[in-house]
Design goal:
exocytosis, transport, about 75% helix, Exo70, Exo70_C, Cullin_repeat-like_dom_sf, mainly alpha
């Protein structure tokens, strides 16, 4: 068993030694192979070095070729794009010619506007293509120049070809410049821009203001509220906007603005001319002073209406159109400047008429029209400043404010000068010979009543307040509008009162001053009460200043006119003796009584006037109460002495007194007949109105104290 194992082990050792010998033999052969390979590698390296030296020039040429290819590609690609732009421009030009032909034969307005919009779009596309050519030509030429210089520098081609390329490049540059300039300034684009200018003008002319001048009425009629109308459809406005932008993009902005301003000014002016404003031709103060008052009054009323219509309707529409058409231009506020240019000349005509009126003679009746003008400007002020906004409209707004200042100054001057004319005897007329109410008083009262109505009181108060601010400064303590107006009216009323007192002293007749003062003060009181004038001054003021003086003057009139008649029948001592002398004395008194009555009657018929029926009725009643009871008592007292003769009865005397106040003489010859049957005339019933004349018999001291 052990021997077998040893044999097996020995066999394995022999086999391993055999393998080792074989491995040693293989290693020897590998060393020889490596030496051979090393020799081969040296040979290959030498071959590669030789090949590298031979390939190096070819590599340089390859790199130069790649650089040339890069430059050529960089120049050819933009050049191809430029050629494409030329092709586009040619196609747009053909399309433009087709659209122009279609546009020239189209008669339907709506379809024509749509085709015109396509025409504008084509013009924009052509302009864009030409601009693209103009923008890209220089870079393309520059890149081609770089290729030629590279060929010349690297000598990639022969000199002959290089020179040909240089000459071609120069020719190409000149061709591009002339061609592009021709396309921009002498070709279809220029013709299209001229057509667009004509179309722009035609469309603007076709946009008219509607309903202007169709509802003409006199100044008394109720005027319709101004309505702002659209001057064109959305499509028409869009086309105008696109045309304006196209013209502006092609250096035609000034032409576009000139066309717009010229056409729209004419359209606005023609719209207002439909109102027939011939009065605006007269505008200097001297010319206005020569106008008849009725004509001037009508002209001012029309000016107010037309000024408001121009601002609220015509200019609002024009401003809107300016913004819609020109608002998208690069110059942001150019549309505002255009609008102001359109409105400036028209507004100047309105302003100069208003300024002429304000500077003309300050006649009293002008006050109301001046206030109407001022009030209309005040109501328009906010809207006016909004319409003429910004720096562009500053000059027009300044002139607007200057006109307002002139109207304030003129209105206040007219009012204050009216008070000065009233005071004293500056009106140049003597008082009425019959003591009636003079025209000046009637005019002044009606004037002030009209001034205190709702229409004129607020503007007048505003004028007075503005004037006070100018004089005292805006930081000073100011009175309210109502107090200012009340004080101003009170001053004028007091001037009128002083005028009355001054004129009353010019009468030679001692009774006429009382009749004159009574008539005038009663007239002022009755015409002012229950009116805006009376409410402004206050009832207490009116009673104290006018009613009480009228009552006092009535008492003085009665005392001096009828007092002597009553005193003729006063009792005397001799009347108590029943003798022939007493009878003659009593009858003599009656004769003197009727003689005096005749004289009083004649004076009233020919020299005294009490025009107010209510005042006359109250005086008649008071005089009857003064005279008839005394006469009746006298007849009753001396009835025995007067028997055998018929005398005027107390009832007939009452009728005769009534006739005196009716302003008639029943006999026609200035004498009163005593026949009772013919002399008895029923007295008129006195008119009963609120505030009747009461308590006529008052002390003199009250009148003298007033």
């Amino acid at each position: 068993m052990a021997a077998n194992e040893v044999d097996s082990t020995l066999l394995k050792l022999e086999s391993a030694c055999s393998d080792l010998r074989t491995l040693l033999q293989s290693s020897a052969r590998l060393g020889n192979d490596l030496e051979e390979m090393d020799k081969q590698f040296d040979s290959i390296d030498e071959t590669l070095s030789t090949a590298a030296r031979r390939v190096a020039p070819l590599q340089s040429l390859s790199m130069a070729a790649k650089a040339l290819e890069t430059r050529i590609n960089r120049a050819v690609s933009p050049a191809l794009d430029l050629l494409h732009s030329f092709k586009l421009s040619e196609s747009f030009q053909r399309k433009l010619v087709e659209l122009s032909d279609k546009l020239s034969i189209e008669k339907n307005p709506r379809k024509r506007v749509k085709k015109l919009l396509k025409y504008v779009q084509c013009v924009d596309q052509l302009n864009e293509a030409i601009n693209l050519i103009s923008r890209d030509r220089e870079p393309v030429i520059q890149k081609l120049q770089e290729v030629v210089e590279f060929l010349s520098r690297t000598k990639a081609t022969d000199q002959y070809r290089t020179e040909r390329l240089k000459e071609t490049l120069i020719t190409l540059r000149a061709l591009y410049e002339s061609e592009v300039d021709a396309m921009k300034f002498d070709g279809l684009l220029d013709e299209a821009l001229l057509n667009l200018q004509d179309e722009f003008e035609i469309m603007l002319q076709q946009m008219k203001h509607q309903n202007i001048g169709e509802q003409q009425a006199d100044e008394e009629a109720v005027q319709p509220v101004p309505v702002v109308s659209e001057l064109g459809t959305e499509m028409e406005v869009e086309v105008l906007r696109r045309i304006a932008e196209t013209l502006a993009a092609n250096d035609c902005l000034d032409i576009c603005i000139d066309i717009f301003v010229k056409v729209r000014y004419r359209r606005a002016a023609k719209a207002l001319m439909r109102l027939n404003p011939d009065y605006l031709r007269t505008y200097t103060p001297e010319e206005i002073d020569e106008m008849q008052w009725e004509s001037l009054e009508t002209a001012i009323s029309l000016w107010i209406q037309h000024f408001e219509l121009a601002v609220k309707t015509v200019f609002v529409s024009e401003k809107r159109l300016c913004k819609q058409v020109l608002g998208g231009l690069p110059e942001v506020l150019i549309w505002l400047e255009c609008f102001v240019k359109i409105a400036d000349k028209i507004m100047a005509v309105f302003f100069r008429f208003g300024e002429g009126v304000a500077r003309s003679n300050r006649e009293p009746q002008k006050l109301f029209k001046l206030l109407e003008m001022f009030d209309s400007l005040e109501k328009l002020k906010l809207e006016f400043t909004e319409i003429f906004e910004g720096e562009s409209g500053a000059d027009i707004c300044i002139r607007f404010r200057e006109l307002e200042k002139l109207l304030v100054h003129a209105s206040s001057k007219v009012f204050w000068e009216f008070g000065l004319q009233i005071e004293g005897t500056s009106d140049g007329f003597a008082p009425p010979q019959d003591g009636s109410v003079p025209k000046l008083v009637r005019y002044a009262v009606n004037y002030l009543k009209y001034l205190t109505t709702e229409t004129y009181s607020a503007p007048m108060a505003k004028v007075l307040l503005t004037e006070q601010i100018w004089k005292a400064g805006i930081l000073s303590k100011l009175e309210t509008d109502e107090n200012l107006l009340k004080d101003a009216i009170s001053n004028t009323m007091e001037a009128l009162q002083r005028n009355i007192e001054s004129k009353s002293s010019s009468y030679k007749d001692k009774i006429l001053p009382h009749i004159f003062i009574m008539n005038t003060h009663w007239y002022i009181y009755m015409r002012s009460r229950n009116t805006e004038l009376g409410k402004l001054l206050g009832e207490q003021y009116m009673k104290q200043k006018y009613k009480s003086i009228a009552e006092e003057s009535a008492y003085m009139y009665q005392w001096q006119a009828w007092g002597p008649l009553v005193r003729l029948l006063e009792k005397e001592e001799s009347e108590e003796q029943d003798t022939k002398a007493t009878t003659a004395f009593v009858r003599g008194k009656l004769e003197a009584f009727f003689k005096c009555f005749n004289e009083i009657s004649q004076r009233h018929a020919g020299g005294y006037s009490i025009p107010d029926p209510d005042l006359r009725a109250q005086l008649r009643g008071a005089t009857v109460k003064l005279v008839v009871p005394v006469y009746s008592e006298f007849l009753n007292t001396h009835s025995t002495l007067l028997s055998g003769k018929s005398y005027v009865s107390p009832e007939s005397l009452q009728g005769l007194v009534g006739q005196v106040f009716n302003g008639t003489d029943q006999t026609g010859n200035g004498r009163l007949k005593r026949q009772e049957s013919k002399d008895r005339v029923s007295a008129r019933n006195s008119v009963s109105v609120e505030g009747d004349l009461k308590n006529l018999r008052r002390s003199r001291s009250k009148y003298t104290d007033v």
